[in-house]
Amino acid sequence: FFLMIRRPPKSTPLYSSAASEVYKRQQRRVHGDLILQMDTEIEKYIGAYKGPIVIYKLRQLFMRDPKLASICMPLAIKYARSTGLVGLYEELYTMQKKVPLLADIKLPPYEDSWSKGEISKYKADAQKKDSDVVKAVSNQMRDAIRVSLMEAGDVDIKYGFIPEGFKHYAKAFEYSRDNNDLISAGAAVSLTSICLDNFGFLYRYCENIAGLPSTIEAKKTLINCVYAIGLYANDRFGEVAHRLLEVNYHKFEEDLRKLISPQDYAYYLVVCALATFSRPDLKQIDANPTIRSNLEVVPELAGLIGDFLACNYKSVLDKLDQIKAPNKFNLLFLAKIDQLIRLIMEKVIVQYCLPYKSVDLKIMATALGMTLAGLEENLVIMSAEGTIKAKIDSHNKIMYLRKDDVKAKCFKTMLENGKKFIQQATEALLRMKLTKAGMTLEAPETDDKALRQEPDSLRGFLGGFGGFGGFGGFGGFRMEGYQFTWANNFIIPLEKKKKKKK
Question: What is the pTM of this model?
């Protein structure tokens, strides 16, 4: 007989299909929770900014990670609509049509009547300002031209037309002469260049005006912050910290939020200072009440400097590992954070080894909260780069530090200074004798290139003779019947010309 196994009817679900449905529902729930959490975090992040920089930050996020477009694009459109930035509002909807990855994103309904009304208002205001510019140009009033161009740029930014605003501000900068006018126009140009993601213009304008004195403290503060961001993008971390130290964030918070949030300011300042500043400079930061009040928005950062000064290096490295999470939406900061953490870690290792001639790597790894293999790998890299002078015994796990002989270094410096003194004294005596003899100079009649290359020390010395003229470019010279040339940093006679008898 045959054993027949009857299949279940098609309507009866298999055990695996039921389990897979449960798994799919769980995955959808988890994904939905993550989207909701991400949405809340992004809203909190952009809530610390105001103005067109909010749209720039959101656009930067979804262009970097298209998965965030479903969160960032609706938020950007809602913000543009609520603040009247109709130029950016139109740009976002146009972007969805042009970029295929954004085609399926569900956006708020397009408000055609509102958009047309705002654009007509913008055109009327812009036309009025442009007529003012033309009138000022016809009257050839430079200051009136600058003021009209700045006002035209303000209208562009008010309605969200950033490229047009940049052009007006850049022209106004060209018509600026006074320091205050240069600072105002430069701050406007730099701020709009960030919204256009153009750091080249930012660096160019800020570098020229950042050092100018100005009575407009708010604009000067904004320039320092903008310039600091440009310096950060160019890996000049020490200058970033110095610029931000000049900023009183709480005093000008409303203006600075157009560029940088309080949290971003604190992270840029502390991390860059910790990576580049010496211990005395860090002590000044820790003791400054104004800076401490500016850092209160992120209390763990103030503790970071305190831990470093107290030699609590394990706590420093642990807090550095936690810096990335709160700044995951600040893409510029994240781009350099690994490099900064590396600099701080090397600084911690150098500071730990400073008092010792030899260090047990096992004890050191425990003290710093690092693995032994990781510590040894970092020490090998630092030794090869010359950051730390040491010899590592890999078998016994001991590092022997090679420190400079202070006495030998001091003795060598004294010898060099003594030689310089003897040379300078000899030159001074020669100058006195030449002056006393009343000798005059004339160019030598020689084409020998070797004689034309005088030593640097004597070139400056003899070139400064008031009555004799300069020696620059001459390898020899004549003085009342004698011809001289350079040899071993001294002037020696080559020949004596006989005087003709009258």
Answer: 0.71
Place of tokens 């500016």: 294
User: Across the strands, what pairs with 493?
Assistant: 484
**Both structure tokens of 96:** 């969805």
C-alpha dist (Å) from residue 228 to 198, 260, 264, 265: 15, 11, 12, 10
The helix/strand/coil state of 185 is: helix
CA–CA distance, 166 with 170 (Å, rounded to integer)? 6
Rounded Cα gap, residues 224 and 271, in angstroms = 17
**8 A C-beta contact, residue 53 and residue 259:** yes
DSSP lists the bridge partners of residue 484 as 477, 493
502 residues of the chain, pLDDT tens digit each: 444 555 555 554 444 455 555 544 554 444 444 556 777 888 888 888 988 999 999 988 888 888 888 888 899 999 999 999 999 999 999 988 888 878 788 888 999 999 999 999 999 999 999 999 999 888 888 889 999 999 999 999 999 999 999 999 999 988 988 888 888 888 888 888 888 887 776 767 777 787 777 778 888 888 888 888 888 988 899 999 999 988 888 888 888 898 889 899 999 999 999 999 999 999 888 888 888 887 878 877 768 888 899 989 999 999 888 888 888 888 889 999 999 999 999 999 999 988 888 889 999 999 998 899 999 898 888 888 888 888 888 888 898 887 666 677 788 888 899 999 999 899 888 888 888 887 755 555 554 444 444 444 444 444 444 434 444 444 444 444 444 444 444 444 444 444 445 4
DSSP letters along 75-122, please? HHHHHHHHHT-HHHHHHHHHHHHH-GGGTT---PPP-HHHHHHHHHHH
Q: Are 347 and 275 in contact, with CB atoms under 8 Å apart?
A: yes
Query: Which CB contacts under 8 angstroms, 24+ apart, belong to 487-495?
Result: 489/423, 489/455, 489/457, 489/458, 490/426, 491/430, 491/458
